[in-house]
Amino acid sequence: MRLLALAAGAATLAFAAALPAHAQDTATKAAIEAEYDNYLAPLFLDFHANPELGFLENRTAAKMATELKAAGLDVTTGVGGTGVVGILKNGKGPTILIRADMDGLPVEEKSGLPYASRAKQVGEDGKEYPTMHACGHDTHITAMVATARRLAATKSQWSGTLMFVVQPAEEGVRGAKRMMADGLYQRFGTPDYALAFHVAAELETGKVSAAEGIQYSSSDTLDVRVPGIGTHGASPHLGKDPVYIASQIVTALQSIDSREISPLKPVVVTVGAFHAGSAYNIISDEANLKLTVRANDEETRAKVIALVERIAVNIGKAHGLPDDKPVTVKHFSGTPTTNNDPALARRLNAVMARNLGGDAVVPFEQQNMGAEDFTYFVAPGTGVPGYYFAVGGTTPERLAAAKAGGEPIAGHHSPLFQVAPRESITLGARAMVAAVMDLAGRK
């Protein structure tokens, strides 16, 4: 299936690349780049210096509401927590959802950039964390402002309703679900299309890429509690060591992708946290693991979650934990795979090539096991076709230097993460405007 999808994508790109150069929207390019230099750059720097954690993006949401109102949109705040919705009506035509996520991460920035974040914030758990836009959401919301301003200024060229969704808490894959639960579509209308993009550090600036099928994997969060029987470190035989038992669980979980699931089906099980004990010479009475599970289809996703529980519980039994002290697994949250609508992706990939230039659109071959909650806006039950694309975030010069043995390109969520803001924001906005103009343009 993947080979067929890639072949179809290549055919689309070949067709689009053959189109004449005059099809590119040079007016939009010039206008958005001028907007960046004269208006958007300080906005981006402000967002980058003031990142906020999921569902705590009060300052960011207020600033986005102000910007969208200034662009002429009818704005509603407090949707699904801190979410913002801006509506731009312009006669009869399709309703198009344009989404940008706005939350940062509890990461201390070490990028060395002159505008690096030094912010801190108290999280939902009451603890203070350094905060950073370590995934590029600051570029997403700045590009949304650019998109809204450009489309508001060119209303003679399109017709319909635009729904700008400023989403909270993408990093915990919670925000989109909560906005939907707060009646997003019931309150503002079910869109005919939903669009979003993500800046990609591994992709060259000036390039965009979108799959004609799966774009991101599923992700599920699980807690594993391993009870023990505490005792002195000198007398381990008098207790049950939860650190040892939990270590066996961590190791055994890595057998899932190598021995339990077909090697043709991608799976990742990551233990991100292991907490136990507080002293050198005490065997504690509990250990706790925090993990994520990722897959590319719903059947595998369910099977892996069940395997985690089977392995963890039975390792506890194998080490003699009593029946009243079993290992327990709690499934906290999850998001399904994010899939582009194939027909819409083929159409808009060609649009991108016509407007941005045939060499700007590259086949989507870099799908990793990252997850996205944009999927809730385009879930099968909604009937909304979605198109999610990647926008290059690293300059060719930096990529070439890294390939030659220089400083490597930091991945998303790294304290060293950085992207080229001007190139990422202007191209993201140009691409989004091109998609809207094709879907709602006046023929």
TrEMBL record:
Pfam families: M20_dimer, Peptidase_M20. The keyword Chloroplast does not apply. GO terms for molecular function: metal ion binding; N-acetyldiaminopimelate deacetylase activity. The keyword Manganese applies. Residues 221-314 form the Peptidase M20 dimerisation domain. Residues 1-23 form the signal peptide. Keywords: Hydrolase, Manganese, Metal-binding, Signal. This is Peptidase M20. It comes from Erythrobacter neustonensis. The lineage of its organism: Bacteria, Pseudomonadati, Pseudomonadota, Alphaproteobacteria, Sphingomonadales.
